[in-house]
Description:
Layout: H1 3-31, E1 34-37, E2 41-47, E3 67-73, E4 76-79, E5 85-91, E6 93-95, E7 101-105, H2 131-136, E8 142-148, E9 151-153, E10 160-163, E11 168-169, H3 175-190, E12 197-199, E13 205-211, H4 244-249, E14 255-261, E15 264-266, E16 273-279, E17 281-283, E18 287-293, E19 312-313, E20 319-321, E21 328-330, E22 337-343, E23 347-351, E24 368-369, E25 379-380, E26 382-387, H5 393-400, H6 403-423, H7 428-433, H8 435-451, E27 456-462, H9 473-515, H10 517-588, H11 591-609, H12 628-667
Parallel strand pairs: 19-20
Antiparallel strand pairs: 1-4, 2-3, 2-5, 6-9, 7-8, 7-10, 10-11, 12-15, 13-14, 13-16, 17-21, 18-20, 18-22, 23-26, 24-25, 26-27
Amino acid sequence: xxxxxxxxxxxxxxxxxxxxxxxxxxxxxxxxxxxxxxxxxxxxxxxxxxxxxxxxxxxxxxxxxxxxxxxxxxxxxxxxxxxxxxxxxxxxxxxxxxxxxxxxxxxxxxxxxxxxxxxxxxxxxxxxxxxxxxxxxxxxxxxxxxxxxxxxxxxxxxxxxxxxxxxxxxxxxxxxxxxxxxxxxxxxxxxxxxxxxxxxxxxxxxxxxxxxxxxxxxxxxxxxxxxxxxxxxxxxxxxxxxxxxxxxxxxxxxxxxxxxxxxxxxxxxxxxxxxxxxxxxxxxxxxxxxxxxxxxxxxxxxxxxxxxxxxxxxxxxxxxxxxxxxxxxxxxxxxxxxxxxxxxxxxxxxxxxxxxxxxxxxxxxxxxxxxxxxxxxxxxxxxxxxxxxxxxxxxxxxxxxxxxxxxxxxxxxxxxxxxxxxxxxxxxxxxxxxxxxxxxxxxxxxxxxxxxxxxxxxxxxxxxxxxxxxxxxxxxxxxxxxxxxxxxxxxxxxxxxxxxxxxxxxxxxxxxxxxxxxxxxxxxxxxxxxxxxxxxxxxxxxxxxxxxxxxxxxxxxxxxxxxxxxxxxxxxxxxxxxxxxxxxxxxxxxxxxxxxxxxxxxxxxxxxxxxxxxxxxxxxxxxxxxxxxxxxxxxxxxxxxxxxxxxxxxxxxxxxxxxxxxxxxxxx
Length: 668
């Protein structure tokens, strides 16, 4: 055996095996036969050479040409023909929660001159994860109308650059493309386009939408009409501009839209439409809103034949709406029209410098300058209370533009001229003293003038005329008037004081009366009791008198009868006595003897009744006893004297009685 030959072969064989092993390791890597794609990435396939040649248009090889393949590789191990492909790893596109991503197609059909964004009106054009389908379906290059919502997407970033708020997903971008995409990202960020439109309920805002794609508005139009708002028509209901293709299919125009969006969250492509938040229109209670609309159809005049100051249109038409908006809150597009707030409650216009109402309608009004008949130049502060009928509010806006112009250009000159005319017919004192009369007359006369302007005048309030700054003549007049009035007031004061003194005196009397009220009351009661008792006594007296009268009458009658009887008896007795006496007198020898006989009888009777002894116990005599006879003669003298005086009278009576007795006797 040849040892040398044997050793050489043995040495060469291991080297060959090593070379083969190295080739097996290096050649697959160099030829890129095997490629591994992580699950959080995709593989973008670039064909380095092809028997089909190069791409004629675009840079996505749809027919096996050399270039970028439309399909991406998902996670795993992939085997390729050696030295034919280059694999580019790209991250999956991730859109965060509540975020929006924008798509920029680098290849596809060119945009039309009127287009701003690529159309995605078919399912093929709207599939960004299938490049082949997108391109074969007629997808257009450039920014797309469709947006990407939250989620993770396996997108070929060679064909579609994805713009998010955090980064731009793109492969093999040139410097120019990178600049374009960065600028687009900045524009979207300025429009707050990476987040949805959120109109919170507590902000009371509405969104005015401006569409940047689609056909232009017709000539003469400034606001695009509402389209695609019927929820039942799914083909064109764009749901507040969230589906651009349906909006355009409904006939939507580019430009500011009449339709507004209200509270909610809306995912709107800000490259397609931008949203401006504006406050809602609030018409307070006590006001109405007259709408001046800048768009809408042209309609016939509905103001009537008598109104010749302009036209009113039906609500929704272009012009001044016939019916105002009542109090409430409205999602009104302030770019499509204007709302003039008109007060329907009573409001005051003050012709007073420095005093301005809440609506500032009188901020340019000042006191009215007057010239009186006696050449004084006062200024007159004035207030006017007025009211506007809400149905007439559109007429006022059509005629004057707004209420402030009405006040400054019409009412102010009219009111000023009216009071100037009144002042020049009066003196200053008359102007001061007749203020109430002027106020009443001015209200009546100005009411008709206000009605001609569709206004309802409620009241005119006139203030006190004032002098201009530095003018003291009016003040001097007022001082004189005040002095005169003070004098009158003093006179009235004195008169009132006099009345007060009288009243005070009456009050004091009343107080004294009140203090003695108890006694007074008791006395009044006693008076009343006495009156009642007197009345009772009077009544009793009357009854007693009547009783006595009756009794007296009865007694009188009885007495009369008794007297008559007694008289008859006495007459009979007298007659008998007279006859007896006559006979007795005749028997005694005459009346003197009869009278003496009677006197002695009565004297004897008297002596029997006295206690005096008939015979004296003592005897008075003279010094020598001579007077005893004279003393004893005292009773005798007394009796003689008595009988001597009595006898003539008795005799005369008897003489007179005797004939009468005879006549009575004869009469009987």
